[in-house]
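Posting for a labmate who doesn't have an account.
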Amino acid sequence: MQIVLHLLARLIKTMFRAILFRSTFLLVLSAWFAQGAPLSLHPRNPHYFNFQGRPTVLITSGEHYGALVNLDFDYVQYFDTLAADGLNLTRTFLAYREQPGAFNIAGNSLAPKQDRFITPWARSSVTGYFDGGNKFDLTQWNPKYFERLHDFVRQSAKRRIVVEANLFSCFYSESSWNTHPFNLRNNINGVGSGPWDQILTLRDAELTKHQAAYVQKVMNELREFDNVYYEICNEPYIGGVTREWQDHIVKVITETQRNWKRKFLISENVANGSAVVVNPNPAISIFNFHYATPPSAVGLNYGLDKVIGDNETGFRGTNDAVYRMEGWDFLMAGGGLYNNLDYSFIAGHEDGTFAYPQTQPGGGTVALRKQLGLLHSFFRKFDFLHSKPIDDLVAAPLFSSHSVRGLGTLSGKYVIYLRQSTPPSYSVRWSGTMEVPTTGAYTLHTVSNDGVRLWLDEKKLIDNWTDHGETEDVANIQLEAKRKYPLKLEYFYTGGQSIIKLLWKNSDGVKVPVPESAFGNGLKADYFLGRDLTTPWKSRVDSQIFFAWGTDFPFPQSNSGALNQLVLNLPPGAYKSEFTEPATGRVLKKTTSRTVANRLTLELPTFHEDLAIRLTRQ
């Protein structure tokens, strides 16, 4: 009997080892095959990615796109920083350079010195590049560039970071066009003679051939990597980029990889804010938006069954909270990609510790990256692959000062995001008359974030109708005492710290707010939703123009204050709830509640700016 038992035990042990070996072998084999397949849309839910065999959302707070082309930028330390913060995406421009001071960006990594700018094309022996050095030969590739490109993607892959390889960018002006090798003055090949706003079109057949050759070269060089996708063009809705040209580049990409077993995703940058994608190119898998808050772009295009991304943030001040909440909002709306534009990364500060000035067009800090890493962790712990956005989640009206978004699964798992609302984009037109106390020379000053235009006596004196941080604009004018001058001032706000002030300086040299007495009975103030002064919102009389609303509404909001309770439309049952503080990841409270008439009432913990909730039906 003992011999039988001994033999049986050995048999069981041998079988267990075989099963264990087989399972381990299959796991290793599946991981090996998964790693060989490039980033793709997930076959079970194409609103998200499949990366190395795992359902994936891409979340980052990345540098301003110069990590590859700027030889002074240490991308290894940069990738170490992203990985340590739990982030998994970087966006890089492959062949583009800005001039110092562009967009008021301090330490811009995309504005290297000319001798530290590396491109796919080799320099020729002919001098004459626009700010020094030799011109480029568009028929000769630069081996040093491709060595750097290989290592750049290899180092990111080691850290499981996906690279958005941005093939082209629009040109914003003659200034940005002046830096590019495609510009006739910068190459020896006699191409690129057109105006700056007609370069990314099909008008110049020879230039288009060079553009296609560059795309093919890059793709063939990166063919063996699994952590890359290609964006056609940054902000093609600016600078004359045509739809036909974009479709041509898509065709070049698809033809290049036609016979490859491993296909790479293509991204289209659709619009700033939101827009409905009309007649999408079927080869596009990712539709990216910039400044996509509120995240209406997701709902408008969710039916495409592709990834919707918020691929650039900014122009909302330098405060961490607005960008953290933008990320949570976008992913909770059903988005699959969020890229905060982080200005704390520059050459020499690849650990993301650069203390940029408050005039920077966006934010980014060590703390914000930790917060976005917590967002990534929160999503990884949720079955987002089997979820979808819930449109009718809230059963009882909320304060106008708060908003709620949520995702849910058929198995009864939910994640909900509650946050303080921020003002929508709005615009204002003040009109009336202005009278000065003494005759003389006056200097008028506007301080604004964002756009401002000023007319006095029907003359346009100030015109800075752009997205910008806090900026002072100045106009000089001779004025007569006791004369009532017609005045009109227009302003728009799209995010950040809202401020609009009108000041004057007379011959005494003292700058002060234009006083109420200068405007008689006040100025008619017409407020509009949106930045274009077309959708009436509210009207009132303002005694002067001297406002710093910050991130508050310009009008008091009804029922604003602490939110203590949330009533949700949910299937019947008992639910476990976990309330988390998004800024810290700290769990504030856990409860169990039961629905009454398909409504679940949650008693909320005290929170400051936003709150994340996990719900599980028992």
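Reply:
Got it, the structure tokens are right above this. The longest strand covers residues 440-449.
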